[in-house]
Amino acid sequence: MQIQIPRQVDYIIGKLKRHGYEAYAVGGCVRDTLLGRTPGDWDITTSARPAQVKALFRRTIDTGIQHGTVTVLVDHVGYEVTTYRIDGEYEDGRHPKQVQFTSDLLEDLRRRDFTINAMAYSPESGIVDAFDGAGDLERRVIRCVGDPTERFTEDALRILRAIRFSAQLDFTIDPATCEAIRTIAPNLAKVSKERIQAELTKTLLSDHPEKIKEVYETGISEYISPAFARIPWEKIRIPAELPAIKYLRWAAFLRLVPPEDAVRVLKDLKMDNETITHVRTLTSWSGKPMEENEISVRRAMSQMNPQIWDALIELNQYGENIRSLTAQIRERGDCLTLRQLAVTGQDLIAAGVKPGREIGEILSKMLDAVLEDPSRNHKNILMDFYDTSQ
Length: 390
What we know:
The chain is an alpha+beta fold. It is built from 20 helices and eleven strands. The longest helix is centred in the last third of the chain and has 16 residues, at 357-372. The N and C termini lie far apart (83 Å). The model has no long low-confidence stretch (mean pLDDT 94).
C-alpha cells in the first residue's frame, strides 16, 4: 500500500537508503495517514547510528542523542530521526535505564506502546505492520503491543495515553489492555503531575472529551490526586460542540465542584496560573442565570475580560438574546472597566479628594452608575454625581 508522505520526509528516507541504511516513517504519522488525518509531525526510524545520520545531513540537532535521536532540519523544519533500539530495564516506571541500538526494525517496533503506533512505512517497502495495527484501526481498538502489563509497567504514562487516544480517535480500549490499566494504575505515582496534566488536557480537548470518565471507570483517578478523585464524574457533561479551548474545557469538567476545589485540582496537576485564574472565574459563574437586559449583561461583562465572558456564554449556553446584547454593548463601546471611565483618580485628587481608599470607593460608585446607564460616562456628569453623593 502506498501512502503520501511529505517530500522532506521522502528526501531523508531516500538519502539514508542510498547510503545503505534502512529508514521508515514510523508511529503516529503512519497511523494518522491511514485514518485520513493530517499528521502533526513525521518521525523517522533508521538502522543508521546517530553519528552516521549526522554525517549525512548538513543541519542536525542532537535532540536526544543518548537515546538515538537526531533532529534533521530540512527547509527550516525539524524531523526526528531515531536509530532502531531496544529499551533496557525501566527502573523508574517511566524511562529505560539505557537503550541498545539494533539493526532489526521489528525489535524497534516491538518496544512501542500500542499496535496502532507500531507501524512503519517507506515508499519502497510499503507498510510494515507486525502487530496488526492496521487491523486495530479498522476495529477501532486501542491495544498494547505484546503483554499490556509489561508495557504499562515500563511506562505508566501509557495508561493515560491509552485513554487519550481513545478520546482523540473515538476508539474503545481492548479488554486485556483495560484490565492491565486497572492493575498498573498505582504506578501513576511515578509520573510527574505535569505529564499527567498534559494527557488529561489532550483528552479534554479531543472530539470526545466525555471519555475522561474512563479515568474514573478504570480506577485511575485516586492515583492522580485526592481532589481529582472526588469530582462527581458520573454527572459530568461536556458538550462536544464546546470550543476546544483549554480553560473552557477544564471549566466544563470542573463546574460541578466549588471554585476552590477546582483550583485545588488544577494546582495539584501543576497547571499554569493563567488557566487556573480563568477556570476559577468560569466555575464561579457557572450555572448562573442571566437576566436578558443590558444592565445585567454589562455588570457581568465588567467582572471579567472579554474572552472569558465569551467562554462563559458557551459554558452556560446563554441564548441568542444574551449574545445579541453582548454584541450591541461592544459595538457601542460601553464603559465596562475603571480604565474606560471618564474620570480618573487624578481628577478626584484635583477636586480635593485625599489620596487613599476613598478614591477607589468613589470610582467604583461611578463605574456602577455608568454600568447602569452608559450615557453617564462623561467627566462633568460623573463629577456632579460625586458632588451629590457627599
